[in-house]
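Checklist before submission:
- one chain only
- standard amino acids only
- sequence pasted in full

Submission:
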Amino acid sequence: MGDLFANLALGFGIVFQFVPVDIPFIGSVPLPLNILLCFVGCLVGTLVGVLPGVGPVASIAMLLPITFKFDPVGALIMLAGIYYGAQYGGSTTAVLVNIPGEATSVVTTLDGHQMAKQGRAGIALGIAAIGSFFAGCVATVFIAAMGAPLTKLALIFGPAEYFSLMVMGLVFAVVLARGSVLKAIAMILVGILLSTVGTDLETGQERMTFGQQFLSDGIDFATLAMGLFGIAEILRNLENEETRDLVRSAIGRLLPSMQDMRESAMPIVRGTLVGGILGILPGNGAVLGPFASYTIEKKLAKDPSRFGKGAIEGVAGPESANNAGAQTSFIPLLTLGIPPNAVMALMVGAMTIHGIVPGPQVMTKNANLFWGMIASMWVGNLMLLVINMPLIGLWVKLLKVPYRLMFPAIMMFCCIGIYSINSLPTDVVFIAFFGVIGYLLIKVGFEPAPLLLGFVLGKLMEENLRRALIISRGDMYTFIDPVNRPVSLGLLLVAVVLLAVALLPSIRKSRDEVFVED
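Returned file contents:
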């Protein structure tokens, strides 16, 4: 317990640290830079969640170039703020417009929008903010408590264990991805293939560059991510006809009554537990949290017929699960180096860009980063509670802006951002190319997220595979040696079992039905 408080003290020290910043015409001024970046991340994340058609994946992909100018800790604090800030903002759109700003806000539309039509929009938004704040705080405590025990993993993980761990992570992504198993596997393999483009670090030979000099350093992660998610998302939204059922009546008071709080207290607690547990699952388990919470609340309710007609429990539980899952999804990222969803894959990319190798050793080699991010989540949750309440009027006005007026500015921002990294015109061409590819993949039923996971983990997998084989002098048995490598064997067995389960005909049929319904 003493170590936990000492580590948290270190984290808060990092968050509130004053850093000299050069300001034009003024000079060097000490500023709490990490706090400012946390605030910017939360504000941008809320805005991203509020505006339909602009998700956190696309936004983080677009903002990656900006983070190159910052310290790794500050950069990741800002990106994390965007992610869990988007969960808060998504509820605003779900309640007021009946459009989920985020995938995890789909369930909130069922009762939240009905409450808004009944003149209780303010109550719905207030209980969503309170539930999200509680869930975020509890999830942050859970992450902090898990940190110390999981640091011991760093001592038993060698190259073979890391390789097996990443294989298991990719299999989790296949199992929990929507739609066809074979399509998800194909996307992961394409991602791994793309990660091998460029110069081999060990032999110096160029691979799959086709004699093009600009490919000798490989495909840039920011270019791929911005194309597949940023540009592709713009193209996808442009073909959809906008229908916004914006509530015209007054929002009303934001603070729930004591009766509302009594009805919402246990759903918030249950939603926090369900969302927190499912958020740990690699493969976007956080998305399952709100759905599971809604189902539980409906089954436990004395009158289930109220659900879908403005039941406050149908907002409180899923919104708590939503935010808890968003924050506990950092556990596999920070402790094991496995990104559980596309947003976390972008975070892994940001870490590698800043020279940080994701995995158990982050806690030992980059303690400032690990505990600084955890402390920033507490601060960020408090900021979001303060930001959301008074700015709801502003968000309502923004919801009236048509998407056709927003997309040119988003497109321009993408092009300027990607060009600013390497000052290469080919990068701008590449984001357009990958944008078209991402759009076409979505149209034919392929998810781009597994491709990005494969790309991010591909380089790390190859590196650890080659290290393990060098140590074992080319003996593949090192990965399944039950005496010397029991952890590696166990991880691979889990991966095989999961893949076998996912390929069962009944499971495949249900996955395809869910994909068709979506």
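Reviewer check: The longest helix spans residues 121-151.
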